[in-house]
TrEMBL record:
Pfam families documented for this protein: PG_binding_1 (PF01471)
Species assigned in the record: Marivibrio halodurans
Protein name: Peptidoglycan-binding protein
Domain Peptidoglycan binding-like: 20-67
Transmembrane segments: none
Amino acid sequence: MATRYWLKKTLGTSYPADPSDVLNTKRRLQSQGYYDEPEYGITEYPDTPMFEGIKRFQKDNGLRVDGLMRPKGPTETQLAARSPRYTCSRCGALHGGVFSPSLCHRCWVK
């Protein structure tokens, strides 16, 4: 079962970031199609694609578009509610089990 809340601290461009907050946010955004993994991979460092993904997610879900995520705030709550509940047995990606409870959509089509 997905953890309902995960942020320890506010996540934004002007805030010091907790590495686990960054990784969890990127993975959850990616599982919903809001974070495209850069060539250098998913890191524990905040990056522009992550903040752009947060803003797109906020816009698409009728939230205030400010690029911030606060612990138990509206953006984290919405993202957590939509987060997948399965982990791909092949690549480890989080997913919703639409194609298979054991494989994500990328590994399913391979």
